[in-house]
Structure formats: structure tokens, C-alpha cells
Amino acid sequence: MLPQINTGNTGFMILCASLVMLMTPGLAFFYGGLMHRKNVLGVMIQSFVSMGWTTVLWFLFGYSMCFGPSVHGIIGNPFTHALLRGIDLQSLYQGNVTLGIPTFVHVAYQMMFAIITPALITGAFANRITFKAYMWFLTFWLICVYFPFCHMVWHPDGILAQWGVLDYAGGIVVHNTAGIAALASILYVGKRKIIDHTPHSIPLVALGTGLLWFGWYGFNAGSEFQVDSVTTSAFINTDVSASFAAVTWLVIEWMNEKQPKFVGLLTGAVAGLATITPAAGYVSPAIAALIGIMAGIVCYYAVALKNKLGWDDALDVWGVHGVGGMIGIIFLGLFANKAWNPNIVTNGLLTGGGFSFFGKQCAAVAISTVWAFVFTYGMLWLIDRVTPVIVDDKVQAKGLDLGLHGETAYSDDTHVHDAI
User: Fold this and answer.
1) Are 170 and 219 in contact (CB under 8 A)?
2) CA angle in degrees (0–180, nearest 5) for 166-170-173
3) Which of 91, 195, 310, 328 could bridge to 171 as Cys pair (CB 3.0-4.6 Å)?
4) H-state helical runs in 387-412
5) DSSP letters spanning 295-307
6) Cα(305)–Cα(280) distance, rounded to whole angstroms?
7) Is 71 helix (H, G, I), strand (E, B) or coil?
8) In this structure, what DSSP letter does residue 336 have?
9) How far apart, in whole angstroms, are the C-alpha atoms of residue 108 and residue 114?
10) Are 138 and 49 in contact (CB under 8 A)?
11) Which residues pair with 75 in a beta bridge?
């Protein structure tokens, strides 16, 4: 008798995949609103093109590299499911057949994670990267960084999974790797020639934040791959952490700058969402609130440190996603609790477990940090040998929208640039 599809779980996961897909346009609006009006399209296209090109790579060999038969626990065999070979209408996701989810649904859901992860990085090097270089970067970063860590952490035979490392929805796989890649990128490409820190459209930032927050429920709750009590706790933890982080960031910035800043509130929410991601299905709502507060404090001061050091991380990818992902993984090592997820093997260091699990979580952060930094910096150096990575000064001054793409976000910009 053929295994039966669970229609409830399947419908839920299709919805979650759709929510995660919506996060990438949300990210484009978030980043686009933060940019100067002459660079809006240049940053937004980098998110949208990932929706297309990452899907192509995922179909060709990406899914197989992430979830195909393991090769030494580091990467999946790229040929086993190349072009989705061996997957048909009767195929159920083999990670847990009892879930009754068609493999195609697993392919689609995980693909949405692969799409948004490199798009996160683009906010760091906004206004400085040529589009051709970005396409090469997108391709090789997925192959050399995202696909291996997706396999090592989320494949049952992955080396970090076998070691006992936990990452519920992407603190290591998504946020830490992307944030550290952002840091490597800004150190390679250097500062912008013309720096404008004033967002051209805060309403666009708010729209993007709303879409990200909404989609993040699919990102975190969907990572349970079924509807159960853990799904509900991951859902509420997502909202709690985002809310506490948003308010915390708002209060700190209000105290420091004597005015409540809308962009600060929005940025804090994203920091809270990123930070709870690895722990969402493993901790209580009270711990989610604590994680949100810590995200608001630590990420705020990480951005302040970045500014003091003179790093030109245009949209604070390292401070929000890199630091947030790191905090989430470490707090998971401290507060993971079998009372909130009976499927985990051990509790965190402060919830009755030993030091071993906490140490592994910290080691995973260190490994992913070094790997992402070295590969990202090295890739940019190699790409620069083939095609220029950094746009020239004239294009930066003119704006990437017209200079690289021959388009403008707003009709009156054409006349302004013609005058220049």
C-alpha cells in the first residue's frame, strides 16, 4: 500500500512556502525604501533576480546538493535529484515520511529559503556592485556557502546535524552566513563614494517590514513541517520576539537621540525576527521575549559599533542578521527545552542540560562564521579577476538605476540625471 499524503500538513506547507516566497519582495521593498531614490531599482532587482536564478539553480542541482544522499556529511550528491530526477507525484519527503508531505512541497518550501538568503546580503554592498558581478556572486555563494550549510545542518546525515547541532529555521544556515558574508563583502568593496543615510521612502520600509513579518510566520512555524503544538509555539514566539525587539530598539534610540524613530522600530522588529529564527520551535514564549529584548539591545549596539569602526554596511545586514543569527544560536544552546519540543535530545545549558550541547552551538557559530567569511571574500576576489566587482565612480554618482539598468523608479528622476 502506497504511503498516504496528509492533506492537512500538505496544505499548511504550501501556504507556508507561499508566505516565505512573499518575504523576498518584502525584503526588496524594505531595502528599496532605505536607499536613495536613484538606487532603488539597483537594490530591488538583486532580490527579485534571486527569485528567478536561484530557482533555476535549485531545479538543476541545488535541491540535490542540499537534500540528496550525503557525501561525507558536507554536501548532497548533485546528480541524484538533478532536474528533480526521481521525484514524482507519489514521492513523499523522506526526512520524515510520517508527515505525509509530497517531496515537491519540500522542494518548494526549502527553495524559498535559498532564494531569500543571498538576497539578505545585498543590503550591505548597496550602490557598489556591478550587476554582472552580482550574478556570479549569487551563483557561487549559493554553491559554496548556502548549499553546504543547508546540507550539514538540515539533512539528517549532515555532519553538524549528526553532531547534535540544532537550528530550527535558519540562524546558522540563513542569518549568520548571510550576515558574515555581508561583513566580508563590505570589507572587500570598501566605502561608497557618495554616502546618503537618509531613506528615500520610509513608507516603503514599513511595507517591506510588514511583508517580512507576515511571511516570517511561514518561515518559522512552517519549519515544523506539520501542524502540531510546536507549530503554534513557533508561531507565537516569532511575534513575541519581533515585538519585544522592536520596542526595545525604539526605546534605546529614543533615549539616545531624544526622538522616537520609525525606522528604528522597524529595524528592531527585523532584528527580533532574525534572532528568534533558530530557536523558535525550541523555547518558551517567555524566553522568546528575552531573546527579543536581547536582539533589540545587542543588534542596536552592533550597528553603533559598525558605524564607529567605519564599516560601510549600507543597510546594517551584519548588525541585524549576522549578530542576530549568532545571538539566536547561542541562546538556543542556553534555553532549549524539551518541555517545548519533545523531539530534541537535550536541554540547554540553563534549562538542565550539560555544557556539551551549548558548546556545539557555539562551535557551529564559529564554523559558519569562518566558512562564510573566507568563501565570500575569496569569491569576490576571484570574480574581480574576471569582471569588475565595484561600479566606477561615475555610475555611483549617477545612481545604479540609470547607470547600470537604464531605468528609474520615479519619472522625474530622468530629468534630474539628464541635468547632471
Assistant:
1) yes
2) 90
3) 328
4) 393-398, 400-405
5) HHHHHHHHHHHHH
6) 27
7) strand
8) -
9) 10
10) yes
11) 71
Nearest CA-CA partner of 321 in 23, 17, 13: 23
Using a 10 angstrom Cβ sphere, with 0-12 exposed, 13-18 middle and 19 or more buried, the burial of residue 363 is middle
Q: Give strand pairing partners of 71.
A: 75
Q: How many Å apart are CA 296 and CA 273, to the nearest integer?
A: 10
Is pTM, for the whole model, over 0.70?
yes
Q: Which CATH architecture has domain 7-412?
A: Orthogonal Bundle (1.10)
Nearest to 404 by CA among 386, 415, 416, 417: 417
398, 420 contact by CB (below 8 A): yes
- For residues 359 and 278, give the distance between their C-alpha atoms in angstroms, rounded to a whole number: 16
- Give how far Cα 292 sits from Cα of 32, 156, 277, 324, 403, Å: 25, 29, 11, 10, 40
What distance lies between CA 221 and its chain's CA centroid? 16
Question: Each residue's pLDDT tens digit in the chain (420 positions)?
Answer: 456 899 999 999 999 999 999 999 999 999 999 999 999 999 999 999 999 999 999 999 999 999 999 999 999 999 999 999 999 998 999 876 678 999 999 999 999 999 999 999 999 999 999 999 999 999 999 999 999 999 999 999 999 999 999 999 999 999 999 999 999 999 999 998 878 778 999 999 999 999 999 999 999 999 999 999 999 999 999 999 999 999 999 999 999 999 999 999 999 999 999 999 999 999 999 999 999 999 999 999 999 999 999 999 999 999 999 999 999 999 999 999 999 999 999 999 999 998 999 999 999 999 999 999 999 999 999 999 999 999 999 999 899 999 999 999 998 775 455 444
